[in-house]
Amino acid sequence: MMRVCVKLQVRPELLEEYRERHAPVWPEMLAEIAAAGRRNYSLFLAPDGELIGYYETDDDDAAQAYLAASPIAARWEAEMARFFVGLDGRPDQAAPTLPEVFHLEDQLPTSGLQNESSAS
After folding, report:
1. Fewer CB within 10 Å of terminal CB in the chain, N or C?
2. What per-residue confidence (pLDDT) applies to 110?
């Protein structure tokens, strides 16, 4: 399983509309995200427009390819593109990813603390 984090910048003047467009997302787009193999997907939006996305997947290349070929995702991303600053291409395909530098569950087994934390 891969954990993927992306970072984008939403145009400050469009923050409220961006929030509204995600409450709720089109049901057919939700189905495409799930069919692509993305799970535990969240978006976090800061007051200044910084957007952080997180999801888990077994194969991010396959998920990206699935969504790139999806007419539903293409329509959604075409509508979403205007919200972002400095992005060249579809948001779902061009969003820069952030490298993971720490994950608690990866380090607990070798820390000697796992037994203590699971006893709490």
Report:
1. C
2. 87
